[in-house]
Amino acid sequence: MGKPTWRTALSDRIPGGRDGRRMLTVTFVDRIGSGLWGATATLYFTYAAGLSTAEIGVLLAVSGSVGIAGPPLGGLLADRVPLRPLLIIVQLVRAVASLALLTTTDLGLLLAITSVGSLGDRAASVLTKLYATRVAGPDRVRYQAISRTAMNVGWAVGGLAAAAALTGGTVTVYRWLLIGDALSFLASALFTLGCAEPPSATRIAGTSTPAPSEPTPGDTAPSDSAPASEKTTAPTPWRDRRYLTYTASEAVLFLDDSVFKIGLPLWAVTATSAPHQLVPLLLVLNNVLVVLFQVPFARFGATPNTARTSLWPLASAFLLGGAALAASAVGAPWFAAVTLVLAATAFTVAEMLHATISWELSVVLAPPTAQGAYLGVHGLAQAVQRSVGPLAVTAAITAGPLGWLGLGAGLAAMCGAQRHLVRDRGDGALSVAPVTVSEH
Q1: What are the distances in angstroms from CA 176 to CA 48, 98, 110, 179, 267?
Q2: Interval 282-311: pLDDT, tens
Q3: Which parts of 196-240 fold into alpha helices (H)?
């Protein structure tokens, strides 16, 4: 046998085999398009569509609210139909929605189109997570870390490409960037077409009922000889109070997203003496740290017990980030700059820790036969945070340094509450049943 090449060695380190590697390509290409559009969406609606600031606000708020339905809807469907074609359809819907934006400047039509696109975006996110969970099996946390690295690199490539294109400063450029976003979804659909359908506990459970000619005499308890109607009845997350409470706590812990996108930039330019040029560098720092350290951070979610234990360092990172932001409001520019860098680093560490912990716990708390529905409900946490998070962060800014201290302490307290929620449950009770990770 010949000596393995560096490419073979690298491939062996990516869980999920060929399909895992292809889905990483899907993630990377998808995020390039998101980077192109995310950097120019407001500019497109302003200069190409001719909308006012108020109209853009309404557009984004309404479409974001509609998008909240995407995760539970996508997860519910994934438990009933094959995942791969469903993901392809969602990618195509996103592509059509992006191209449709080029056809009108009417606010009503734009509202409808962006709502469909938002619904597809949120559904695609949970479907991609579900595919990774199924194909990577017990190595799902490591796969998630590699996937997040691919996401951040894709975002960076798309953002840099958009920044370079915007030097032209014409309406035509905005349209071509939107076309690039649509093409990324088409490419993602094509790459997904080359992936295999991952094993699904839901459909296996629904089709593995033994023949009625093999009953066990005298056995009245549910067993392998139970009627199909009993075996195919999957639990629902909407009646699982523990999972719903867990999802609610997740919506709070995902606030690091709003802190970085809204809170930190606004605070830096309105309440500190740090130079404004520092703000984009803090966002670059976030991106670089995630690319470098997200994979090593996978160890913090290697098992359910490790994920629960890692909620303590997550709480510490939130506390440190809030305290650093509070301290940045006093002192000389150099002190403000140092504390802002410290805050950005702390919240990035929190982002990486929470991403790892959240991935593991959201999967192991879900019954294997309703994994899609449960992960869809968990996806509501990010969707709700995107709607409510900006209000929480701007409230902290309004309250001043004490607001940031309170936010950091509140996030730390939520980490403790979440750990209490999943306490005293052994790894066996939380782990995914083998049927979800074996080959069928």
Answers
A1: 11, 11, 18, 5, 33
A2: 877 888 888 888 888 888 888 889 999 999
A3: 201-207, 228-231
